[in-house]
Amino acid sequence: MVLERVDLYHISQQLVSPFVTSFGEQVERQCLLLALHGDGLTGWGECVANSTPGYSYETAETAWHILSDFLIPSILGKELNEPDEMIGWLASVRGHPLAKAALDLAAWDIASQRDGLSIAGKLCQTYAEGPKERVKVGVSIGIQPTMDQTLEMVQHHLDQGYSRIKLKIRPGHDLELAQIAREAFPERSIMLDANSAYRLIDAPIFQAMDDLDLLMIEQPLGYDDIYDHSQLRPLIRTPLCLDESIVSADHARFALAIGACDVINIKPARVSGWTEARKVHDLCLANEIPVWCGGMLETGVGRAGQLALASLPGFILPGDISATERYYAVDIARPEFVLNAEDSTINVPDSPGLGVSVDMNRLAKVTLRKAHFKL
Ligand code: OSB
Ligand code: MG
User: Fold this and answer.
1) Is pTM, for the whole model, over 0.90?
2) Whether the predicted pLDDT of 289 surpasses 90
3) Strand order in the sheet with 5-21
């Protein structure tokens, strides 16, 4: 099919509660959405770059620039046969994975619709088994003002049915938090995410967590560092998971080669999209490295994409893919995603493409600016 037109939207949605991490606080969440048109079909993609360069160097502003001035012009008029062709067309731009992932997801959406398959079904065509129908999920809890509020928040999400809790940590808010959480919830699956806030010299903090039976510790050291994680790993007993520092399948290969991690959090956006995310998954599956699908507070568009990815066979750990209501009171996509409380899962969409539709009225209400690109 010929790619004829792209509509680009920069949106801002209020989060139900502020999300605080070691790199900052988010009250509203910005992102870009794009609609890719061809052969009478429309594919949607989400660029998870936010207003500030905290998690990634990309922002909604830089992604707007890269998409409008380089990426979108380079794909208009191209004939798309299979979705994995898209990322190759974007390769002349270095970096900017979050911007690229939006076009990559739209390509998966539109090509899956053409084939009458869900994205999960299309992604899984390369495996003996089909996609999982529901995937295990957990919840990621931002840093709370007090320890009591953290425990209340954990209890609240356990009551809702989430079986895995991730707590954000930062220097000065780490060991004691982990100890208190473990004491309050001795049987629960708890993990920590440091978002790169520590250095190798901080190893004793993580060694002191050895007996807390944590599921894993995510990205304790530098966002662009793989080597020091390989140095930290033999010093601690808690499984080490990488997030920020795995930006491609090659980086995953480097990490495995030097033993830098036990687990990888695969965020499709961070690795330029679903085609590359599946490569990371395949590498990990072949090397018996468990993976899970990370999140960036996605709208329903990105969340549908996360669920499709997490339906692949190697995703055996619960993902950061919570129900819509955990993020937004009202979202731009329908239907909303709900938690199956009995087994802490969310259903993988099974209708063609993403399996969600964008509510154009709602979209208009949250749009800060939009632009249209045609041949
Ligand atoms: O490090 O996993 C992270 C959100 C924004 C940026 C980085 C991260 C996160 C989360 C939230 O932990 C995951 C989610 O529920 O979407
Ligand atoms: Mg993380």
Assistant:
1) yes
2) yes
3) 41-47, 24-38, 5-21, 367-374
Report the pocket of ligand 1 as residue ranges, CB < 6 Å: 55, 140, 193, 195, 243, 294-297, 320, 322
Note whether 330 and 317 are within 8 A (CB). Answer: no
Enclosing H/E stretch for 253: helix 249-257
Rounded to whole angstroms, the Cα distance separating 189 from 166 reads 9
In the chain, the domains with their CATH numbers are: 5-116+359-374 (3.30.390.10), 122-347 (3.20.20.120)
Angle between helices 300-310 and 274-286 (to 10 degrees): 30
Average pLDDT over residues 252-271: 98
Q: Is 365 a catalytic residue?
A: no
Please indicate whether residue 267 is annotated as part of the active site: yes
Q: Which of 267, 279, 365, 374 is catalytic?
A: 267
Q: Are 23 and 54 in contact (CB under 8 A)?
A: yes
Of the residues 17, 19, 20, 21, which should be mutated to test ligand 1's pocket, given the most ligand atoms within 8 Å of the CB? Answer: 21
